[in-house]
Specification:
Two copies of one chain form a homodimer. Chain A is of the alpha/beta class. Chain A folds into two domains: 272 residues, Crotonobetainyl-coa:carnitine coa-transferase, domain 1 (Rossmann fold, 3-Layer(aba) Sandwich); 77 residues, formyl-coa transferase, domain 3 (2-Layer Sandwich). In chain A, 37% of the residues lie in helices and 14% in strands. In chain A, the strands form four sheets. Chain A has a six-stranded parallel β-sheet, sandwiched between helices. The two termini of chain A are 41 Å apart. Chains A and B meet through helix 2, helix 6, helix 7, helix 8 and strand 8 of A and helix 2, helix 6, helix 7, helix 8 and strand 8 of B. Strand 8 of chain A pairs antiparallel with strand 14 of chain B, so a sheet runs across the interface.
């Protein structure tokens, strides 16, 4: 990046968070905090977070893990061992916050409810992430990302308009239910920390209760107000927008998709000129957005007939020249090659001792201008930092750590 | 909610943020902060934020706006007026942070760069949200939510597998590019505030640079590591998951979709028993997840043939009875009627003087347990709080405010 890194520290330097999480949501929350400089202590069972088995592996090591757990310290604790509770409670006074995503009540059953955790540190921040939340009639139901997306309203909308195809609404392709709820948890922790730690603040610990379903619902814009007042049930719009035309994704000769948004009068005129259909400018059925919306299927078909004759590269150049808002629908390959992402450190190689070559990572979001911009290390092997953390925070020596290991506590 | 509200204040009480934003991303960031108790001063042009025209209207008033601008104070400032700069700079010392989402450089052109803003308050936090970010070769390109989703990799994945249908990848139906970048901006502001305001902190103002494209990219899980190491280009999976079967959305007799995830051995056996195909349990082609993935199209078709014979309500009951993870794909109507959402205050009526009845809103995310849980007021009319804010913060009297209004500054 063009920014001057100066001599500042990262924005979350000095913050320590204990993660008792697994899979996606809680680890996503702590990845964001780690990227901004927090010290994350991730508690894993001795066999590791099950997410280590997900996705493509090289020699039994997950590529996703390299990014998902980067910048965190991994310690193993067997939470089912009778001595585990005591060990966790001895770590808590050294931590500002705990983030967890077990089923509601599960940590309490292990003797680690927020109230118990606060006996060890009264002003501790505790964030729970779960499918439906910690209260209410559905709190005990199992849920994962895809359920959160369905109950939150997102899945219904990722579809072609009713009657178009005989196929189910599609998945977004990544677990946005998990990552967005992770973002809300991280945001809630930071809000609570600010109020706790500022001079005029209230000094209190707080408990944060994030549900996957609710995190999705919070993105649904006017869906509820419009349903409540008008009984309008928001419908999926396929590749387009129900209230504007033409705007959609159109196919290229080489199998890519190009977004084109030409739904104003001047943009429509420029697009029709480009595709050689000046006869439609101001013509009945195409005069004004409202008429075009009524004829959007016909319009999309004829734009598609044109776009299919050109490669993606040619289309992007032609549309840019005509000053029509457009962009290629990026694949992983497009993202990796994009000069803007590279210029801003958003696609970068990160050294990872688990692999014989650096691993391609996404960068840090949000950019904190002037802060050191560093991915400190790649996702560690199981328990890499157990000895280091227990020594540093609890003052345990090698013999004491060996005893815990022998007893099966760590 | 079952929680005891106690006598505490909301977590962001005492925080004041100036929003110089429009449309979705910056206003979404400030909606989240307002929901948690911050004092948001939203600067609007005298004709109002263009988002006030979006979506369904009643008597010229937007239903979405009721929720999008709730809990904020609206003041009008004509930023193009020569005296506007001075007015904004006089407000800044009273604010902790500024959040804006104009094109990169536009506020600087108005004399309101972060550096200038910090002449008025040296430790001010400034968050920018833009399509591609404040730096790099594409920084000046126009972008909006849908472009961010395309460049970030999300749009390519919201599709049926290549070759399935001759239709474009679908939009998610809401502007997740905008809302997720708003979340990152709010999170960045809180991180910077914590480091600025805590006793051991660095006391510095920081500038935060959030891009829509990058906010989307940050959710792409293993996409980049797997592409970098193996050249694997992540592909869309339609309604299913490329590595597990059966798991998909299946149609009901009454036109709804039901998610069913039965991709383990016991779940598959239970599902086949339920649909009367015990002959397939352990049969060649269906024995183990790997075989089922290879036959997932056939499997989805026969599960769909069964599901089409039952109503959504019947399917949900049958699947629950058989203990198979499932859920209806919720529409707006399902969400509004859901007992869990109602129990947790996530679907609620909010009084709004702009309408003759209360407006249906989504609730506050994240839940801060024990904090007062209140949507303080619905989205205000343009400039509702201009006089109040200028009086309270700047000590201007009615005559001074009338003069600013006469001069066209506010």
């Amino acid at each position: 990046m063009a920014e001057d890194a100066g001599e500042t520290q990262q924005v979350l330097a000095g913050l320590r968070v204990l993660e008792i999480g697994h899979f996606v949501a809680a680890p996503f929350a702590t990845r964001i905090l780690a990227d901004l400089g927090a010290d994350i202590i991730k508690v894993e069972p001795p066999e590791g977070d099950p997410a280590r088995q997900w996705g493509e592996q090289i020699d039994g090591k997950s590529l996703w893990w390299s990014m998902h757990a980067r910048g965190k310290r991994s310690i193993t604790v067997n939470l089912k061992h009778p001595k585990a509770r005591e060990l966790i409670l001895s770590l808590v006074p050294h931590c500002d916050a705990v983030i967890e995503n077990f089923r509601p009540g599960q940590l309490a059953k292990l003797g680690l409810s927020p109230e118990t955790l606060r006996t060890a540190r009264p002003d501790l921040i505790v964030a729970h992430i779960s499918g439906y939340g910690q209260t209410g009639p559905y709190r005990d139901r199992a849920a994962f990302g895809v359920i959160g997306e369905a109950i939150g309203g997102l899945r219904y909308l990722t579809d072609h308009p009713p009657g178009t195809v005989d196929l189910p609404p599609v998945r977004v392709g990544v677990s946005v239910g998990d990552s967005v709820s992770g973002l809300y948890a991280a945001l809630g922790v930071l809000a609570a920390l600010w109020q706790r730690d500022r001079a005029a603040g209230d000094g209190r610990g707080r408990t944060i209760d994030v549900a996957l379903t609710e995190s999705m619902l919070s993105l649904m814009e006017g869906m509820l107000p419009e349903y409540g007042a008008l009984g309008k049930v928001k419908q999926p719009g396929g590749g387009g927008i129900a209230t504007a035309a033409p705007t959609n994704a159109y196919p290229s000769a080489d199998g890519a998709w190009i977004l084109i948004a030409a739904n104003s009068e001047p943009l429509f005129a420029r697009l029709m000129t480009l595709i050689g259909r000046t006869d439609l400018i101001g013509a009945p059925g195409y005069d004004g957005n409202q008429q075009r919306v009524a004829n959007s299927a016909t319009l999309d078909a004829l734009i598609g007939d044109w776009s299919r004759q050109h490669s993606a590269t040619a289309l992007v150049a032609l549309l840019e020249q005509a000053d029509i808002p457009s962009s290629k629908v990026y694949t992983a390959a497009d993202i990796a090659a994009d000069p803007q992402y590279r210029a801003r450190g958003m696609v970068r190689e990160v050294a990872d001792p688990g692999f014989d070559r650096p691993v391609l990572h996404g960068g840090v979001v949000p950019h904190m201008v002037g802060d050191p911009d560093a991915v400190r290390w790649a996702g560690p092997a199981i328990g890499t930092h157990t000895g280091e953390v227990l020594g540093e925070l609890l003052g345990l020596d090698d013999a004491a750590i060996a005893a815990l290991r022998r007893d099966g506590v760590i």
